Amino acid sequence: MPIIQTSYRTSHIWKDAHFSTIYPSTLRKVTGIQYERERLELWDGDFLDLDWSKAGAINKKAKSKKKEETKVDEVVQPSKSLAILSHGFLGNTTRPYLLGGAKAFNSIGWDVLAWNHRGLSGEKNRLERMTIHGGSDELEAVVNHALTKDNYEEIVLVGYSKGANISLKYAGEKGEEIPDKVKKVIAISCPTDLQGSVNAMGKTGFYAERFKSKLLKFLKNRWELIDNQIFREFDKYKYLDDFTNNYIAPLHGMKDAEEYYEQCAAAPYVPKIRIPAFILNAKNDPVLSESCAMLDVAKNSDYIFSEYPNYGGHCGFYASNPEGLYYGDKRMLEFVQDKITV
């Protein structure tokens, strides 16, 4: 498909890559989402915690006040559409960008299933294994679980950052064998080229240090799952790359960081996707390279749509509106409703 002509416009401080990344991540407030949690047992004895936001439940709550006034019972029909949301690196289902996505889909009558990566739901997992950038097997377990809910006629996969990479990789691995009910996939601020993303972020600087600090805290909070000898080495790691190279990659059967980036990246799988896929990356994203936008693939694919605005930061795309939704939220809805033109 041709590259999508972006309609994203912003001004002043929102053109700054760092402000447009940091503000939405730390100060954005999204209200109205109340999750119902479900635990999904996995094949290896571990679990994932799933958070559901049902559009029907929200509508029923909103209508309850009206019912008190009119005394008329209203039957809320269950949704036939589901969005499966995958969060980013060391995030969870309460991150502002994910809550914004949930609110957007609920607003058009879609249910939302947001899943927490291992150890990030607020409860420690049972195994040392983590959810990695290539964790499409875990997303597959979530999708298969959703397929057991007979009321859904269409499912859309939505991922942010790391979760976007997982979503695209899953869709590409499945190719023409993807479940019939999975209709589209959406990737926001996606590091499809993991090595390119690492190079763009650099070994030092704010984002590298922030991710390193968050990862170290995460690992120390689950020390009882980790071999003590390896654990004592974590404080010696100077760069984020050192964690991937010396611990995360070997833990998951890969030789080193280079092999991790190669095996986990979605880029080789994107050309194999056989459902409509939308990638929204910003040119000024401080942690993504241009290669992550998959522009060359989109130009020659019947399935890949890539939008690459000048601004937006990482999982940002700020927009001011009464509903509290950002540009990325609205763009997702336009894509699932076939309102994006090329």
From TrEMBL:
GO terms for molecular function: hydrolase activity. Signal peptide: none annotated. InterPro entries: AB_hydrolase_1, AB_hydrolase_4_sf, AB_hydrolase_fold, ABHD4. Residues 84-290 form the AB hydrolase-1 domain. It comes from the Bacteria. Keywords: Hydrolase. Coiled coil: none annotated. Belongs to the AB hydrolase superfamily. AB hydrolase 4 family. This is Alpha/beta fold hydrolase. It comes from Arcicella lustrica.
